[in-house]
Amino acid sequence: MDPVIQVRNLTKRYKTKLALDDVGFDIERNTIYGFLGRNGAGKTTAMSILTAQNFATSGSVRVFGEDPYENPRVLSRICFVRESQKYPDEATATHAFRTARLFFRNWDQEFAEQLIEDFQLPMKQSIKKLSRGQLSAVGVIIGLASRAEITFFDEPYLGLDAVARQTFYDRLIADYAEHPRTVLLSSHLIDEIANLIEHVIVIDRGRILMDEPAESAREQATNLVGDAQAVERFVADREVLHREELGRVASVTFLGKLTAEELAAVRDAGLDLAPVSLQQLIVRRTQHASPASDESADQQEGALR
After folding, report:
1. How many CB atoms lie within 10 A of CB 187?
2. Average pLDDT over residues 203-212
3. Shared fold status for 3-216 and 217-303
4. How far apart are CA 13 and CA 58, in angstroms?
5. Which among 110, 134, 236, 254 is placed 20 to 30 Å from 148, CA to CA?
6. Strands of 249-255's sheet, edge to edge?
7. Is 241 strand, coil or helix?
8. Burial of 66 by CB count in 10 Å (0-12 exposed, 13-18 middle, 19+ buried)?
9. What is the pTM (predicted TM-score) of this model?
């Protein structure tokens, strides 16, 4: 265990809203994390406190073993890129990268220039006139080329189209292999980043719902499809996350894996096992933790896409 971030009993309250409720977790060195959850779950609040851009109501945060607030030794080793990143009105991408080059001691100018070409970013146009996708590319380039020891990406790539997002994922994983560091990806596009992340932290209504290696998370749930009565017999004593029925056919997602003996019985009963994606698991877990109507459940799944 080699944590670069340690969070203990972290609570953040905004008047009547409890954004973080006694949260605790560790972030290990040189690991890619998925920092996941619904809109308003507390992800951005947590990242803002970790990067000293917000204050905790109570609890403690240690980054590289120190309090990050007004601590240049810590903050110079962190890069926080967010969707709502602000720049001076007349600044261009050139200005933004020159400033980043001065601040981040591991900045790689050659890599930055390669990324500028990859994203076809206009360098002389003022940032306020850039499209949403071009503005996202500015943040992504800073996050990658900074090679900071800890890099937070708070959904800055949502403005990118599918091709540009894939370019970001490809460049991230290739550069991470050559220059390991700690990366936290906050995203609603869980299926897109599922193969990148090594550890999953899910926040739901200000509390940690899941904190485990991605491989373990993927193995948490099973989906069983077939004759409704037969399916119900197999899941009778299990924690069901989601159930759908159409006539005599049922599809049930439940926590846990089947034993070899149970798998044989499933086949004998003519039932089908379907994989549960990481996105579906998180959608179902958060729905299960927060009982909702069918309409609000559909809205929740959309918020995680």
Report:
1. 23
2. 93
3. no
4. 9
5. 134
6. 240-246, 249-255, 221-227, 272-274
7. strand
8. exposed
9. 0.86
Q: How far apart are CA 131 and CA 121, in angstroms?
A: 10
* Alpha carbon distance 98, 25 (integer Å): 35
Distances in Å between the Cα of 192 and the Cα atoms of 35, 97, 177, 248 are 14, 27, 19, 34
- The one-letter code for the residue type at 46 is A
- CA distance linking residue 252 with residue 240, whole number of Å: 7
CA dist., res. 54 & res. 45, Å (int): 7
**Token representation of residue 199:** 């550890």
Contacts within 8 Å (CB) and 24+ apart, 171-178: 171/115, 171/118, 171/144, 172/144, 172/196, 175/111, 175/144, 175/147, 176/32
Question: What percent of the chain is predicted at pLDDT more than 90?
Answer: 67
Contact (Cβ atoms closer than 8 angstroms) between residue 278 and residue 190: yes
**Can you tell me which residue has the tokens 């060195």?**
29
Q: For domain 3-216, give the fold.
A: Rossmann fold (3.40.50)
Residue 302: what residue type? G
Provide the angle, in degrees to the nearest 10, between the axes of the packed helices 93-103 and 132-145: 20
217-303: CATH topology is Alpha-Beta Plaits (3.30.70)
Buried b (16+ CB within 10 A) or exposed e, 256-269: eebeeeeeeebeee
- Degrees to nearest 5, angle at CA 193 with 187 and 196: 130
What is d(CA 281, CA 222) in angstroms, rounded to the nearest whole number? 9
Torsion of CA 68, 74, 77, 83, to 10 degrees: 20
Report yes or no: 60 and 9 within 8 Å, Cβ to Cβ: yes
Q: Single out the residue of 139, 276, 250 nearest to residue 194, CA to CA.
A: 276
| pLDDT tens figures, 285-302 | 887 665 443 434 444 444
